[in-house]
Design brief:
The chain is mostly helical and 314 residues long. It is built from 16 helices and no strands. The longest helix is centred in the N-terminal third of the chain and has 30 residues. The radius of gyration is 19 Å and the shape is globular.
Length: 314
Amino acid sequence: MPCMFIVLSVLWGSAVLGYLFRNRTLPGIGRLMTCCVWLLLFLMGLEVGGNHALMQAWSRLGTEAALLTVCTTLGCVLPSAWLWKRIRRTASDAGRIADAGSPSGTLPVKSSLGAQLTGSIIIAGFFLSGCAAGVSRSVPAPPSAASFWVLGLLLACVGWSIGHQSEIRRSLRHLDKRMVVLPLITLFGTWAGALLTACLLDGRSLSDWLAIGSGFGYYSLSSILITEARNAETGTVALLYNLLRELTALLCAPWFCRYFGPLATISVGGATSGDTTLPVISRVCGPAFVSVSVFHGLLVDLTVPFLVSFFCTL
C-alpha cells in the first residue's frame, strides 16, 4: 500500500506549483490526465479480473454500491430541500437569486446529456476491458509499482489544475452568499448516508464507507486512490457507487428539482455539478443556478483527493 503521505505531498506540491505559475498553461495536460485515468482503470480492472473470488462477488458489490447511493442521495436531498425552503421565503428573494445567479454568459453550458453519458461509458469500458483481460489472462500482469507511478503522475496533473482554478472566485461574484453552505450540506449529507450504510451492512468499516462516499461522484480518481490504499474490492465498490451517483444525478434531475428543489439536484451531483452534470442542472433548474452549481462542484471536487486519502488512513 503506498504511503498516503507521498500521495498528499505530490498533490499539495503540484497544487502550490500550479498556483505559483497560474499565468502559465501546460498544453496537453487535460489529455494526459484522461490517458492516466484510462490506464489506471484498465489496470484496476486487470487486478479485479485476475481475482476469481472478487469476480464471483459482483452481485454483492453492486448491491452495496446501490444501497450507499440511496443512503447518500437521501442524506443530500433532505437538508438541501430544507435550505431551499428557507432561502425562497419570499418572491423577492427568488427574483434576487435568479438575477444574481445569471453570470452574463461567463459560464457557458455547451455539453449534452448524451455527451456526458458517453464519457461515463468510455470510463466503464476501460475498466471492463481490464476485467476481461484479467479473466482471460491475455495480458501479462504489470509490475506491482506501475499503477502507483501512473497515479503519481495523475495526482501531479490534478494538483496543477487545482492551483490554476480561478472559476470559484469568478462564480462567487455572481453567487447568493446563502448558497455557500450547500457544499457543506453535500459533504455532511454524504457522510450521514455512509454512516447509515455502515449500520445496515456488515463487512466494512465506517472509514471504508466514508472513503467511498467521499468520492462524491468523482469515480475515476476516488476509486483509484481507494484501490491503491485498501484493496481492489473496495475500489470496485467505490467505482460502482460513484458511477451510480453520477447517473442518478443525470437521470433523476427533473424529479429531484420538482419535489425537492434545485439545490437538491445540485447536491446529488456532488463533485460533478461543476462539469458533467452541469448541462442537465442548467436545463432542469434554469440558468439562474449555473453559478451555484459551478461553485458547488468545484469546491466539492477539490476536497475529493484529500478526504478520500484521509479516510483511507483511518
